[in-house]
Amino acid sequence: MKPSSTSFKRLFIGVISLNLLCACSTPIEDNTSSSIDTSSSSSSEINSSETTHYEKDEQGFYILEDDYFSYNYDEDDNKTESEVYIPNTLEDVDKYSQLRMYIGDRQVPLYQVKTNMSQTWTAEANSRQNNSYTTIGLKGKITIKLQASFNFMNNVSIRPLDREVPFEIDANRRVLTFTISEVGQYVIEMRSGRALHLFVEDISIMKNENPNYIYFAPGVHRYDNDNRINKNNVINLSSNQKVFLAPGALIYGKFLASNSSNIEIIGPGYIDGSIFERNPNNGTVLVPVEFNNCSNITLKDFACIDPAGWAFNIYFCNNVIIDNVKIISSRSNGDGISIQSCQNVEVTNSFIRSWDDSLVVKNYPLWSNRSIEGTTRHIRFSNCLIWTDLAQSMEIGYETVGEVMEDITFDNICVLHNFHKAIISIHNGNNANIKDIHFTNITIEDADVGNGDGWDYIVDIRNIFTSNWSTNHKITAMGQIDGVEINNIKVLDGIDNPKILINGCVDNREEYNNSLHYVKNINFTDFSLYGEILTNDFEGCHINEYVENVTFSSTGNPINGATFTQSDLSEYGNNYIYIN
């Protein structure tokens, strides 16, 4: 049965009348577009004629009552106090000018980051805009006030939607008030593509007193003020070294290790690539986190902001843990976490907003000896949030040089947005035998695919020879795809009539004798598209003659997609204290 183009469509958070203070804690159904900029929709026009008696300051913010952001400790509240950690402001880093964030009477610094909502790849990536990010530490719950220099015009959502963050808009003051009760990553979206990327850390990780760590203190670190960063803007790591990035530490540079083991980079600081050039025409690139031929690696808690290329390059490594990292990229080939020819890799609890593939697994040959091909097995991504402005959200391929690519899992993933190409994709462009692949427990909040030079597939699985990707590193025979589980998938919103593409191929190169390369045993179970469960007669599934055994089925169980742990915070009252 083909899903209706109107059923369960166009979810939108918060329809709020002008001058009315209205709590909106869960999504409601509406017929407006899911695009971030909905300024032309009828719901936005309701608030287009704002009236207020407040004067503006020099930056365009309303000058509010003196005690508006004050905090009064309630002596009668006998419940447990919450604790909040606000890092000190980085003075030499660009601040975001259109929002101010307050916790009580303390202003939280909001830093500027580039994002890119263009869906057409260009080398220059010219269509970037300023947005914001920040980090706080939390134990318990906290109420945040976000003041804007613009009218919210009802266009506010707080993602992931599953967290059901309650919020209120005071249109007269241009203030959004919301309460955070879980650590994790959040995106507060507003009109015209504006977004605050809010990273809420467990307060326990905000300090590290271990003297055995290489300590990057709060403040800006670069080549000219930190002798650990060499003239090439590289921090070289060797075996048994441990690094701590303190809250409020910002490093202009990259961490690089090769042929090493037992290395840690942890802590809630930032690695910032904004000052470095990214020019794919001449190969200029600076990948902030790069590990080659390494083992026993832990990368945890920090953020990569505006990398000049990929954010993470993990190549020919074994036993890697990537936990609670945050990535915002907006430049050409701005992949998020890229795993090449690795074994035993766990990526969890992380946030990736990328202007290229968000989570990607590839097989590369060994550059020093290309007769040694890649081996990829035991790769797991779990409990991650993804926003894909360009390319694919969860991708295996195209570069698949090496026969072994198996046991790869994407589990409990929430895709906040994908505007371009497939959300779930496998592209076997070389000789890999790709098998034992799992996409399970996934929520897709916005499948607005197909914009720009993208395509309207939400799932794309292909054996495919391309003159570029299949010959870029080593010319090989073609391989197979056999055994893919796609289970408990919930698509909330997106384009009308999205498609699924599954294709095998004939290798018609003369030396490969028209060999056949099949895609086999692709099982869709409990796949909900806009509220309707896909069955074997789904008209949007396009397969060719080199595909065997594609099934759609339902267990009859609730289809929940990704879920997030909800802590019992009943012991906490409304009081909180600042920890620094």
Describe this structure as you would to a colleague.
The chain is 1% helix and 45% strand. With 580 residues, it is mostly beta strands.
Task: Write a brief caption for the model.
The protein is built from 1 helix and 47 strands. The chain is mainly beta.
How are the secondary structure elements laid out?
Elements: E1 11-12, E2 22-23, E3 28-29, H1 42-45, E4 80-85, E5 99-103, E6 106-108, E7 111-116, E8 128-139, E9 142-148, E10 157-159, E11 167-170, E12 175-180, E13 184-189, E14 195-202, E15 214-216, E16 219-221, E17 234-236, E18 242-245, E19 249-251, E20 254-258, E21 261-266, E22 270-272, E23 289-292, E24 295-300, E25 303-305, E26 312-315, E27 318-323, E28 326-328, E29 337-340, E30 343-348, E31 351-355, E32 359-363, E33 375-390, E34 394-400, E35 404-418, E36 424-428, E37 433-444, E38 457-463, E39 480-491, E40 499-503, E41 505-507, E42 515-517, E43 519-529, E44 532-533, E45 541-543, E46 547-553, E47 572-578
Parallel strand pairs: 4-47, 8-14, 15-18, 16-19, 17-20, 18-21, 19-22, 20-23, 21-24, 22-25, 23-26, 24-27, 25-28, 26-29, 27-30, 28-31, 29-32, 30-33, 31-33, 32-34, 33-35, 34-36, 35-37, 36-38, 37-39, 38-40, 39-43, 40-45, 43-46
Antiparallel strand pairs: 1-3, 2-11, 4-8, 5-6, 5-9, 7-8, 9-12, 10-13, 11-12, 13-14, 41-42, 43-44
